[in-house]
Amino acid sequence: GAGVSQSPRYKVTKRGQDVALRCDPISGHVSLYWYRQALGQGPEFLTYFNYEAQQDKSGLPNDRFSAERPEGSISTLTIQRTEQRDSAMYRCASSLVPDRTPGYGYTFGSGTRLTVV
Amino acid sequence: AQTVTQSQPEMSVQEAETVTLSCTYDTSESNYYLFWYKQPPSRQMILVIRQEAYKQQNATENRFSVNFQKAAKSFSLKISDSQLGDTAMYFCAFMKQDSGAGSYQLTFGKGTKLSVIP
After folding, report:
1. By the CB < 8 Å criterion, does B103 face chain A?
2. pLDDT tens across A74-102, in order?
């Protein structure tokens, strides 16, 4: 696609429910990143993939959070047994590898705003 | 690990005036990239300007310019002739040079909320 697409745009869920957030990167972008942005804060790195391989998941806060990208394209971030503290904007970004001009090709999606009530 | 600090939570500027947003960072890397991103009320993340650490010349994009002081680990953003559309959160961000693993992870500061007053 022309841009990074995320769905749903908004998600309200009850505490204890599982949620799945979807990211569809730019066609041909090898790398896919997930970030979490709490209200009034900057985005924080969660995890990233090159193709279907999860290269770094050091930013995932705990084992309730997981991500996959089974075919090297669309990725899903899953949060199990949601808690109120999980409420945030979840952003996806994608880039080329190698990126000859790092940063210029780095494209963010519009994010999914998750509210846990 | 890298850290990025933006010490000004909020700033305001009169339309057509100039404003400078500050950013400092801490890293042991010698090669890296620095960015300023704009996040308007629409919540998009828009790249404003980019600086390569090995370049001494400060980057400029139209009304936006940076003052990059590598030794001081400082990277401020100057907005000239401020416009109402510049009202947004501004985030400073750091990216390590890729080691070949195809990693372009960004580390962000907490942001500065800029209001342009008519």
Report:
1. yes
2. 999 999 999 999 999 999 999 887 666 77
HSE-up of residue A112 (Cα within 13 Å, Cβ side) = 28
Sorted by sequence, the CB contacts under 8 Å of residue B50 that are 6+ apart come out as: A103, A104, B33, B34, B35, B59
A1 pLDDT exceeds 60? no
| B84: contact with A, CB 8 A cutoff | no
* Token pair 């005036």: residue: B17
As given in the structure block, the two tokens for residue B38 are 């704009």
Nearest CA in chain A to B91: A42
Rounded distance between C-alpha atoms, residue A44 and residue A47, angstroms: 10
Q: Is A9 on the interface with B (CB under 8 A)?
A: no
Residue with tokens 């999980």: A86
Q: pLDDT tens-digit profile of B46-103?
A: 999 999 998 889 999 999 999 999 999 999 999 999 999 999 999 999 998 776 666 7
Most A CBs within 10 A among B106, B107, B110, hence the mutation to make, goes to B106
